Amino acid sequence: MGIPEGETKPEEQRLGPVLRRRDQVQPGTTDQRLLDTEGDSEWVHTDPWRVMRIQSEFVEGFGALAELPSAISVFGSARTKPESPEYEAGVRIGRALVEAGFAVITGGGPGAMEAANKGAREAKGVSVGLGIELPFEQGLNPHVDIGVNFRYFFVRKTMFVKYAQGFVVLPGGLGTLDELFEALTLVQTRKVTRFPIVLFGTEYWKGLVDWLRDSVVAGGKASERDLLLFHVTDDVEEAVALVTKEVGR
After folding, report:
1. Domain range holding 218?
2. Which of 28, 39, 124, 133 sits in a 20 to 30 Å window from 11, CA-based?
3. How confident is the model at residue 1 (pLDDT cuts 50, 70, 90)?
4. In sequence order, what are the beta bridge partners of 72?
5. For the chain, what is the domain count?
6. Which InterPro entries match (predicted)?
7. pTM value?
């Protein structure tokens, strides 16, 4: 919509908190642009609109999860096979966490995530899946009772930490490592407190732990006490006992 005939373009324009002057003045008003049904739909791809979508994801996530009981987030590979020992361990961990009084939160996908959700569901606990929009995403697994899908990884990761009292990390790939190091960084920098992190599978995690100790800590890039930010175990009962003890349950 342009400037009405006989009127000149203003030198200054205020659009909410935004001030525009001279050549940056836009024709029409915000209401006119909102109500004008003509024009393209490119506006839904602009950064201001993305901010609104990000905000809406936080609101939806907070609303869906605010009344959860104490919970533990369980991570692991979507590629874990149902017939594998890792899958069975995930089922046992999900079941044991519910029996210890926790809800179980996963990424909602297949593999190790499905296993933990399955164990939680079999134990008649609260089984939560926080999915992510991906080109190859398979959707939420059938054992999820409360599911929320996200567009943005950083919103999803906020939900994992905000509504959990600890992490149990099964063998996984890049996504699992991303979530693990996000949690380690938050604990190291004291952005969160009393947040236990348990790595399940000593053989799988041994190379990473050795590298952290022999390269990262030895090279002065982290301190020796940072190795105390997590525990490594092969025992389901010990994993649950560690998260239970550290959150004061």
Report:
1. 54-243
2. 39
3. very low
4. 104
5. 1
6. LOG, LOG_fam, LOG_family_nucleotidases
7. 0.81
